[in-house]
Specification:
Helices cover 38% and strands 19% of the residues. It is an alpha/beta fold. Bound molecules: 2'-monophosphoadenosine-5'-diphosphate. Keywords: Amino-acid biosynthesis, Aromatic amino acid biosynthesis, NADP, Oxidoreductase.
């Protein structure tokens, strides 16, 4: 019988996950389909348990439910430490996972950038930054967190066991760094003229990774290019977090290029 998968969030109509996963299922000739479900906060528990009761193959959880979903799943160690779930599997009860940090690592890796022993400046202290900070620290990166609201950077750095610094120190921080990550919404459509850094504080030995994928070419990535740094856009993270969810649910090797093509077509 056909297996159903889905993403639960609110709002959800612009999600690219259905296109991405359905393309993967078609490519592997799997009798599965993936849908987007608008779920209100008060219904999240029922929606997750209902999906299990109805024999769903798996779920993604997106904004604004990633933190709340922790309560309604049995989270793995990483999801528990991050405090957020973006993937739910039903192979062994209701398990919560978080593939966002691994998605970011794989996005960098495919651009030829390794994270082990690298000096990473992570800007942001929200959900995306948390996932990246925990995963990168676990993989042996030396992470420094900077955020507009310094108290939040401090709390996250303490949770992870890494450093934090003032956002006004970005220039100095970047001098000895290998990777700059924008894990904020700065530069996202429609605020496309905003950037966390300009070319004058970037340098050619830096990889600049922006988790924003709309627009694909953010102002930050343009500034990175002008500075001779290596720009990496957020589509790769979106694709790889999805690909790792696909691997968890199905045990199959995800067809990453097919998934990427579906996302890029959806962004047009
Ligand atoms: P997400 O789950 O996508 O990470 P979030 O939890 O709302 O979203 O976090 C958004 C992040 O972007 C925060 O780090 C936020 O900084 P604050 O903690 O100071 O709010 C950051 N952010 C959003 N708009 C910003 C702006 N205009 N300038 C700087 N940082 C901004």
């Amino acid at each position: 019988m056909k297996k159903v998968f889905g993403v639960q969030g609110d709002p959800i109509e612009h999600s690219l996950s259905p296109a991405m996963h359905n393309a993967a299922f078609r490519k592997l000739k799997m009798d599965c389909e993936y849908h987007a479900f608008r779920v209100m906060k008060k219904n999240l528990k029922d929606a997750i348990q209902g999906a299990q009761a109805m024999g769903f193959g798996g779920l993604n959880i997106t904004v604004p439910h990633k933190e709340k979903a922790l309560e309604f799943t049995n989270p793995d160690t990483l999801a528990r430490r991050i405090g957020a779930v973006n993937t739910v599997s039903f192979n062994d009860g209701i398990r919560g996972h978080n593939t966002d940090g691994l998605g970011a690592e794989l996005a960098l890796r495919e651009a030829g950038v390794g994270i082990k022993s690298s000096n990473v400046v992570l800007v942001g202290a929200g959900g995306a930054a948390r996932a990246i900070a925990f995963h990168f620290a676990e993989k042996g990166a030396c992470v420094t967190i900077a955020n507009r609201t310094p108290e939040k950077a401090e709390v996250l750095a303490e949770d992870v066991g890494c450093s934090h610094a003032g956002i006004e120190d970005l220039k100095g921080l970047l001098q000895d760094s290998d990777i700059l990550i924008n894990a904020t919404s700065v530069g996202m459509h429609p605020h496309i003229d905003a950037t966390i850094a300009n070319r004058d504080i970037l340098h050619p030995d830096l990889a600049v990774f922006d988790i924003v994928y709309n627009p694909l070419q953010t102002k930050l990535l343009h500034q990175a290019e002008l500075a001779g740094a290596k720009p990496i856009n957020g589509v790769a993270m979106l694709v790889h977090q999805g690909a790792e969810a696909f691997r968890i649910w199905t045990g199959q090797k995800p067809p990453v290029e097919v998934m990427r093509k579906a996302v890029l077509e959806g962004l047009d």
